[in-house]
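FIELD: query
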Amino acid sequence: MSIDDDTQWLEWVTKQFESIAGEDKEIDLEEFKTALKVKESFFAERFFALFDSDGSGTISLDELLKALNLLIHGDETDKLRFLFQVYDVDGSGSIDPDELRTVLKSCLKESAISLPEEKLDDLTLALFESADKDNSGSITFEELREELERFPEVMENLTISAANWLKPPTAKQKSHTPRYLTPAYWHNNRSKLLFMGGYLCLNTLLFTLAALRHAPLGGWVMVAKGCGQCLNFNCTFLGVLMLRRCLTWLRATWVAKVFPLDQNVIFHQLVGYVVGALSAVHTGAHVGNFVRLTQTRDRPALWEYLFTTRPGIGWIHGSASITGIALQLLICVMLVCSSPFVRKSGHFEVFYWTHLSYISIWALLVLHGPNFWKWFVVPGFLFVVEKTIGIAVSRMEGLYIVEINLLPSKVTHLVIKRPQFFHYKPGDYVYLNIPAIAKYEWHPFTISSAPEQQDTIWLHIRSRGQWTNRLYEYFRWPEPLSQEPKRLMRNLRKQRYHKRTQEHLFRSSGSEASVATSKDETIELTSYKATRYPDCEPADVTVTRRDGEESLQAREVSAKLSENHRVCNIKCYIDGPYGTPTRRIFTSEHAVLVGAGIGITPFASILQSIMYRYRMRKPNNPRCGYSWAESLKDDEMKLRKVDFIWINRDQKSFEWFVSLLTKLELDQADEAPEGRFLEMHMYMTSALSKNDMKAIGLQMALDLLAKKEKKDSITGLRTRTQPGRPDWSKVFHKMAEENKGKVQVFFCGSPALAKVVKAHCEHFNFRFFKEHF
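FIELD: result
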């Protein structure tokens, strides 16, 4: 620090101290804990004891400045000495195994990591045995220094991150050139910018031509007619942007390289706001013209112009004013209910149902304006065809949810029986309807299974709104606990069903299954017809033959495999599939997939498909290089490298797809690390970073144990889970240096993180694609 910086820092610390300290100008342990905001009191107590140099039980400003001066201005030896004293709980001058275990246990709690006691013992022994060079049974300061030197990234910025309240805020250095004027931004957004420019020019041209044609009628009419012509185009264009099947087809053509088809939802929202503004100006201009007309003799009153057909304005029985007012109200309601604060506040149903008023709006527009039907006839025909196909496809074949799995963080994993003619691409999404949850509601979800998985379709659904919460609770509590009599009645009916089935199953001439002939064998029968037993629930029947004796058991259609895992048979409908930007992945050379939380869903399907294609393309015979299964053309998959980055807040979230990721790692088990086609990067944001004094020991122990056991202690994967958030500059710099081809980044996650990743992509001149639907 310079002298000026040092002075500023002292002023800041003094100010912060005075805001925390009481009237006695001292900080006690409880105030210190509150200020540090630590989850585990161990570190607060250890730091407090070391800061309290006179042992008075409180910390003065002088004591605080002295300690912080050592940590911020001191050299590596000073910082290491402080760290050693934190670990040396009894002050003996060395660290024994029990002290190290206590520290690591507190580290786990600080980082929100849950591990079994046995794993904690393994971590303690891994770090202790590595640091105890002389096998003396304790770790000295020199041994700790030597061990830390093996981890240079730890020593790079050793500090106490929890004491950020004592660091003055740093002013962000803003670039002199606005982001939107940089060459990188124009390069990465050229198709969007060209499209926006063309859209603006077209609206300007339409407005100008319509206004000039009505110039003799005055300024109010010119503005109204200009806005009206723009509304003809924009109200039609709104529907064009939602022709999902057409857009999915166009993504496979040259059109996708010219127009920003992947951002159709963003443009739909933008055009919606434009329609709202144009309709307000259009209505206001007409009202202004009516006021002008009422000032002339023998003219109707203003209210007659607005609410009656007497003035004869409009091409169908003079209904332009009445239909115009109805349109203005509907558009306002739709705009308000489409706002983010409605959609993202758990009231998606409000958005959904009010959005269906587009049918009424289009009908009123046909009645309102004489030229709208000319704009609407072709897009309207395509829209009707799409909707008809969607309804036909969704109702063509009965689909059933055959299995559900409730995952951490309120994620519902649905397994749906795949229709025979349902074909999709990795990363596609469908609209799902479950009548048992909501009869008329359809919600979009990304398919998380690969197309190569023939029998079933997977959906992973995070509970965020009313419908998704109802879905989770429906499977979490399939039987209301308050209805005890009904539960007993069901049990009685099941018992009767068992008895009657045993009596009738093998008496019936047309038996619905053949019995196993082997001695100890269990076979599955087709679903026994509930119509033969109307008082019984549908069930599957299992016949077991043991030692020549046959026994029969009935299994519920909704069978509980475990606490959160059930086999079921619930009716559902799907509409789709529809394409997304991720379809570009297979034509990329170096693809970087960034998923945040449940944002991994589209990439789960893609990763499975990528590895399937990779295995198909890889030669099977290492001697001659001949492949018996090589059936992929080069234009189907140009990928040379895939980097998968998954960022999760907590440890449990990794359980969603850990089995899938384990399988992907096994597919590359024989490859050298530098030659692997797929490289995975895991980040856990709740874990403290490696240079935090409260996490140094834990991160070192996790590294050592991962090398020893060849797997990560947090996820069980071979890939080491990194604490904190990615350093995007370092991550993307490393990828750029690999020279595996043009890098394209595909992101699915929160909008805030998307902005950060996109900004770094522009800096490295990487193409950026974000999931939208």
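FIELD: remark
The CA atoms of residues 616 and 630 lie 5 Å apart.
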